[in-house]
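Example record

The entry below shows one chain as it appears in the dataset: sequence first, then structure tokens.
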Amino acid sequence: MWHALRENYWAVILAVVLHIVLVAVLIVSLVGTPPPLPDGGVKVIKAVSVDEGQVKAEMKKLRSAEQRKQQQEAERQQRLQAEASKAEQARKREEQRLAELRRKRTEEQKQLKIQQQERAAQAKAEQAQQAKLKQQQAAEQKRLAEIQKKNQQEKERLAKLQAQQQELERKHKAELKRAQEAEAKRKAAELKRKQEAEAKRKLEAKKRIEAARRAREEAEAKAALQKQMDAEAAQMQAQRQRQLATLKQQYMSAIASRVENNWLRDPGIPKGTTCQVDVQQAPGGFVISAQASNCTGGGVAMERSVETAVMKSSPLPRAPDPDVFDREIRFTFTVE
């Protein structure tokens, strides 16, 4: 009921005014002559008449006001309908946006699941690679042990050659001593055996020539032995350099593997992307600084992420040989 009164407010006001006017006219018509006053006079009562024209004018004003109110109410209803239509359109757009968000979320969950599967497969492959690397390291250690054994045998052989050389020198000195003693005997006997002097001189000269020849041959043998020792030492040095190169490569691979394990991969960075990484480290593998550059993809964000991964990898893997360690190293980081 109150809702109906609110909607027809001006109509109710108009009806109330009309009823008041009618009641006033009725009262005026029913009023008679008043009773006489005490002094015998008559009190004159002024009659109040209601002008019908005024009533019509008032009613016309009320109707105009009612019409304006109805027009305003109609315009309000139109505005409400327009706002309701806009709200409905906004609601539909919001429902579409929520549906799109749900679809994108479902798609992202699928992509996340695929990425998790890929990471699990990658972790499995890395474990297999680490197991293979351990086998290679064990084989390399075995090979190094064999090399050390051969080196020990070579040292023993060189020691034996040196002992033989010393024996030759001792024999040579003894021979020289015997030659000197023979020469002394020859000079002592020269006074007694003048006839045999020439023959003995020739014999002694022949002995000296033979001794000189033997000395020359021994010197040549000693030079050849020294040359052989130098060649073997050079060969051992070259072998050592190859060994250090292999260990260096393994060392760089171990560092790159640890950095990759600590790297947070951006799905937008394709496989095969590479960066050159310069690292300063202290003894024990503690990273002092890291700088990535020349990345083939990912830009500055890629460089920063690789530098962060290097700092998280501190301390770096220990060098397999002290000669392989270097305070400043450079390696290539590759997105696998």
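Notes for this example: The mean pLDDT is 84. The two ends are 78 Å apart (CA to CA).
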